[in-house]
Amino acid sequence: MRPPSGKMRLLIVLACSISAWGLAPGRLGLRNRHVAPTSELTSIHSNRSRLQVRAKQSVLGQRATNMKGSHWGSTSLFGTPSRAARTRTLSPLAFLCLILKPSPAKALLTAPPAFNIGKRRILNFIQPFFRSCFSCLRKLNKKNVKAVVYSALAFMTVLNLIEGYRARQRQKVDATSEWGRYSDKPAARGMALSLLMMKLVPYTVLPSVLEFFSGKVKGEDGKYIYDSSDEYKASRPHHLRERGGELFADGLLRLGPLYIKIGQILSCRENLFPDEWIKAMERLQDRVPAKNGKEAWELAYAACPGGKAGFHQTFSDFNDVPLAAASLGQVHRAVLRESGEKVAIKIQRSRLRDIYDKDLALMKKIAKVADSIGKAGKVGGVEQSWEGIFDDAEQILYREIDYRDEADNAKRFATDFGVGLGGKSIPCTAVGEDGKPLSSAAEWVRTPYTYKDISSEKWLVMEYVPSIKINDNARLDEAGVTIEDREYLAEALAHSFLRQFCSNKFFTTDPHPGNLGVETFDDGRPPRLVFYDFGQACSLSDDQAFGILEVVESIIDLDAKRSVTAFQRMGVLKDGADLDKVQAKCQQNYDTGKLKVKKRKRRKGTNEDRNAQLEARIDQSRQALAVSEGFETGEVKDTEVMEYFTLQSEYAFVAPPPPPKDGGGEG
After folding, report:
1. Which range has the top average pLDDT, 268-282, 313-327, 477-491, 583-597?
2. Which of 271, 273, 223, 227 is nearest to 246 (CA)?
3. Environment class of residue 558 by beta-carbon count within 10 Å: exposed (0-12), middle (13-18) or buried (19+)?
4. Greatest distance between any 2 Cα atoms in the chain
């Protein structure tokens, strides 16, 4: 039997609060009556027994025994309570049943046989309960209203504390256990998020305070300077930041899949968080708690298209310990029975679509509110529609949990680069500006081959391609990857994305370290990049693709006019934008960038005359701009230019999906 819904629980709590005044001493049947001195002790003991009988009869919904003809009726310390008084007493008992059991009805039906009652008895229990509530509502006054409000707040607080405690106990066993509950009850997740933020406050403030009072000096990067790394690792601020990072990563993990994705994005922003926090959030890329053993087998049988029989008919040597796990699923290694090829199977977690339905609906409401609040719709001065971005995000996220779409994306990516099964070269489908097919990139790029015919919505079978995570420097050193090899890999990575943007017009939107690997060879060949996970990908129009290419070329040539033309072609400039001002700002940025480069070279002994000429040129351009535009100074501020830009969803939504590791993509 499922627990009562949130609204039903709220109604029950309010009803209990309204009738809670039944617990008052005078409402329990206690009466301050005169007791005969000669029979005081006998009266107390006898009436205690009779009170126990009455309480049992009240719980069973039976009428209290009529005490007519008994002298105890007038002299008893415990007089016979009225029916209304008994029902008011039962209200708090119902609340206790609600806490101890998911449903009061279930609590009664599952009681021992001696107390097992039928439907009629249950109705006899419930009807007076609500009757007393309405009776209290008819006699409302200021005092009663205040008591009801305070009681309701107390009951809700106790209920939330109990639910929070139970949730923490479940999360100690499985950190993902509350994803469904948080999706069903956004208020519970909001409370968990608020508690997380409060817990993080001391771990964000205290380290800087301790460093300030210890006399440390800040460097150019804003960080306090220590004499050595060992000194910092032994310091109290370091341990506090480590604990804060672990707490933050663990909190995001417990909140749900979308919050894990936020953590994956933040783990790539080293300028926003301390190193200890970045390191802690990196585990969200491929080390989310997964199902092992029997649970992994059950998950596999449920997701496999042919069920248990189809699974054993197609696969063998299934490893129930996952290679990697993240927000959407986990990856296991297996072998194809027919060919003996090693494969990586990505299995989707349960209830993902239901969680996405509720979480994305809530985020879309937040996006509408953000659009309705003037400046909230701007990022860095660039105007965009949050609702439009989340519409596009919604489509991408729903496609991500349909592994058939990921199989199509993976196949297109492989054919665009001319990479086939085993990393071999195949004809390339992407064409260059001259209309001719591009050459295969199999020499420097690889991606796992996808077995689309045996994949499904929640089940993706890929070629097993082991590699080293691209930012795992220790393992790269062990594999003999030199500095020259890493420079080669960096060039290959840049080349691959330029090709995706400008020629393939199709790119993966998740280039974080968890989805990039390095494949090494023992025969002297240079290492090559391995791309995993194509659950999120985006297509570009011809104008967008050529616009990106023109922007890159204009930056290389420091051509401000061509940059503005490229911006127009990409569609990122609003109608009526001041193109002269945008061009002037681009030229200032290029000149300032060259000046910084020249200054760095001047420290190394470069010609100072050329730098003086360059500074004079910048001053002249500023003077000319001041005359032509009527400014007091020729410098154009960022805010004056950014208002002319608009951010399209294709450029805005780049959300990293769950990462792969050791041979399989993870989503």
Report:
1. 477-491
2. 273
3. middle
4. 121
Structure tokens at 299: 């998950």
Distances (CA, A) of 205 to 191, 208, 219, 275: 22, 6, 19, 16
Q: Could you give the CA distance from residue 597 to residue 329 in angstroms, rounded to a whole number?
A: 46
CA 145 – CA 19 distance, rounded (Å):
11
What is each CA distance from 531 to 4, 287, 345, 500, in whole angstroms? 46, 19, 16, 12
Q: How far apart are CA 260 and CA 92, in angstroms?
A: 41
The C-alpha torsion from 236 through 266 and 322 to 293, rounded to 10°, is: 70
| Beta-bridge partners for 661 | 664
Q: Evaluate if residue 111 carries a pLDDT over 50.
A: no
Confidence of residue 1 (pLDDT cuts 50, 70, 90): very low
Long-range contacts of 105-113 (CB under 8 A, 24+ apart): 106/1
Tell me whether strands 459-463 and 528-531 are parallel, antiparallel or unpaired: unpaired
- Alpha carbons 330 and 594: distance in angstroms, whole number: 48
Per-residue pLDDT band for 491 (boundaries 50, 70, 90) equals very high
Query: SS3 for 17?
Result: helix
Contact 517, 532 (CB under 8 A): yes
Pairing of strands 445-446, 528-531: parallel
Distances from the Cα of 300 to the Cα of 291, 346, 404, 405, 563, angstroms? 10, 9, 17, 20, 52
In sequence order, what are the residues at sequence separation of 6 or more whose Cβ sits closer than 8 angstroms to the Cβ of residue 484? none
pLDDT at residue 329, as a whole number: 85
Two tokens, residue 558: 């420091």
Rounded to whole angstroms, how far apart are CA atoms 487 and 570?
30
- Pairwise CA distance, residues 243 & 280, whole Å: 9
SS3 78: strand
Paired tokens of 381: 């001065």
Where do we find the tokens 């005078």? 26
Which alpha helices (DSSP H) does 38-178 contain, by range?
Answer: 40-59, 72-75, 83-100, 104-109, 119-138, 142-173
Per-residue DSSP letters for 117-149?
A: --HHHHHHHHHHHHHHHHHHHHT--HHHHHHHH
- Strand partners for 342: 335
Local confidence band at 17 (pLDDT 50, 70, 90 cut-offs): low
Report d(CA 293, CA 601) in Å as an integer.
Answer: 60
Question: In the numeric block, which tokens belong to residue 376?
Answer: 């909230």
Q: Which of 86-90, 307-311, 469-473, 551-555 has the lowest mean pLDDT?
A: 86-90
Question: Distance (Å, rounded) from C-alpha 322 to C-alpha 319?
Answer: 7
Neighbours of 565 (CB within 10 A): 16
Extract the runs of DSSP E, i.e. beta strands, from 240-398: 315-316, 324-325, 329-336, 342-348, 378-379, 382-383
Burial 453-479, CB ≥16 within 10 A → b, else e: ebbbebbbbbbbbbbbbbebeeebeeb
For 414-458, what is the HEC assignment? HHHHCECHHHCECCCCCECCCCCECCCCCCCEECCCECHHHCECC
Euclidean distance between CA atoms 420 and 404, whole angstroms: 19
Catalytic residues: 510
Q: What are phi and psi of 366, to 5 degrees?
A: -65, -40
Neighbours of 583 (CB within 10 A): 21
